[in-house]
Amino acid sequence: MIHFRPMEFDDCEFLNNVRNECAEQYLHNSSTYPLEQTQKWFHTLDVPYYTVFNDNDKIGYFRLSNYSKIHHNIYIGMGLHKDFRGKGLAYESYCRFIPFLIKQYDLHKVSLEVLISNQRAYNLYLKLGFVTEGVKREDVYKNGTYVDSALMSILKREVEENDIYNTF
Questions:
Q1: Residues 2 and 53 sit within 8 Å (Cβ to Cβ)
Q2: Taking the model in full, what pTM does it have?
Q3: pLDDT at 166 (0 to 100)
Q4: Environment class of residue 92 by beta-carbon count within 10 Å: exposed (0-12), middle (13-18) or buried (19+)?
């Protein structure tokens, strides 16, 4: 069963490994970081990251940023360990995490950015009910080519009206 908790300092090595492995292909920023830098960064977080588990296995993490109490919105992203991809675990994780997130932070809107080249993630977000608000054309330079970045969001009422968020 999928569950999560606020990330702890001891999770930094796992986060660092997953983030660095995902950087080149899936993230807007292809930089990789040594563990020591990740540990220093951990102490600067305004909003916690969340470690995601499938039963007892650490499978990934949710990153949060750009939280606004005034506007009741936040940005979200997920890093999933390569051994757990393609098994529906990201889908289930988002289905469980988004309602929690909306309640925990009193949110009206959850937003994200995804590289269009990451079709698996883009299709996942569409399946979850996210709406594409716009596309930043040729926004990121990756592997010798420019890649579009989609801005997507889901509203609290859309989550409440979507049965997939009550499935798990």
A1: yes
A2: 0.95
A3: 86
A4: middle
